Amino acid sequence: MTYRFRRLTRDDFGLLAEWLAHPHVARWWNHETSPEAVERDFGTSADRREPSEDWLVHLDDEPVGLIQRCRLADYPEYLTEFEKLTEVPAGALTVDYLVGEASRTGRGIGTGMIAAMVADSWTAYPDAEAVIVAVVAGNRLSWRALERAGFRRVAEGPMEPDNPIDDPLHYVYRVDRPS
């Protein structure tokens, strides 16, 4: 299986809105799916006017998911939440991800796209020492995908959940740049 990443464009917003509306995604992303909401929340990244990168993930030329990547230092409030729970090295990155179709979950696609993005990150960000990800504790499939992609749990504690129905308990995972 070959994963390929392409920066999200406005032409992808319809597909993204469809994915965000699927119950398996909506449960954890808790995102509005109207064209205005997708434009509001993804437009500046699509235009490359903010530091966060949104990538459409293709598996063998078919779009299967979305992965976001950013430096934690570019989002100070989020960085502060991480620093309350664990050491965050300078240049550390974080990712967030979704597999678009429920029929594709449970097949290793999430794990594969996370691992491929981490591998790309070492080249794209030569000063990044680690990728650190927080996952709400109840999202077992997500944190298991991180573990299978080589991340290790380094902390746990309260963070603001994306979905207000979730408990604040998050697990923090980390993978370090290979030696």
TrEMBL record:
Q: Could you list this entry's UniProt keywords, alphabetically sorted.
A: Transferase
Q: Which GO terms describe its biological process?
A: siderophore biosynthetic process
Superkingdom classification of source? Bacteria
* Domain annotation Acyltransferase MbtK/IucB-like conserved: ranges: 6-49
Q: Does the keyword Transferase apply?
A: yes
What Pfam families does its record include? Acetyltransf_8 (PF13523)
What molecular functions are annotated in GO for this chain?
N-acyltransferase activity
The pathway it acts in is:
Siderophore biosynthesis; mycobactin biosynthesis
InterPro entries, sorted: Acyl_CoA_acyltransferase (IPR016181), Acyltransferase_MbtK/IucB-like (IPR019432)
The protein's job, in short, is: Acyltransferase required for the direct transfer of medium- to long-chain fatty acyl moieties from a carrier protein (MbtL) on to the epsilon-amino group of lysine residue in the mycobactin core.
Q: Do you know which PANTHER family this protein is assigned to?
A: LYSINE N-ACYLTRANSFERASE C17G9.06C-RELATED
Q: Tell me the protein's name.
A: Lysine N-acyltransferase MbtK
